[in-house]
Amino acid sequence: MKLTQxxxxxxxxxxxxxxxxxxxxxxxxxxxVNYRAPDPRATGCVTTWDVGGGRLPYQVALERTEAGLLxxxxxxxxxxxxxxRLQHYHCKHVAGLLDCLPAMD
Length: 105
Ligand SMILES: [Zn+2]
Hints:
This protein is an alpha+beta fold. It contains two helices and five strands; from the N terminus they run βββββαα. Strands 1-2-3-4-5 form a five-stranded antiparallel sheet. The two termini are 26 Å apart. The structure holds zinc ion.
């Protein structure tokens, strides 16, 4: 597949978000893109990130639904448990990423 513009192979960003310790001291988390859909407007997985720096490695994914809405997923326990019950809940890994991304539709 030919890309229309050059892309960094594994773009990485570091965010300072509440850490994994009990006091939630701010810690550095690295986000590495490991998948980007060739057409970000297509239905399905748009982008996935591997998140390091926490107690465990996590994966954050952005999905475009058939209705065209964007839905965030994270593999952390907080996202799994609270995200199931609260429709618009974002765990700290997703919230940190949202804070530094441009508005998307
Ligand atoms: Zn999370």
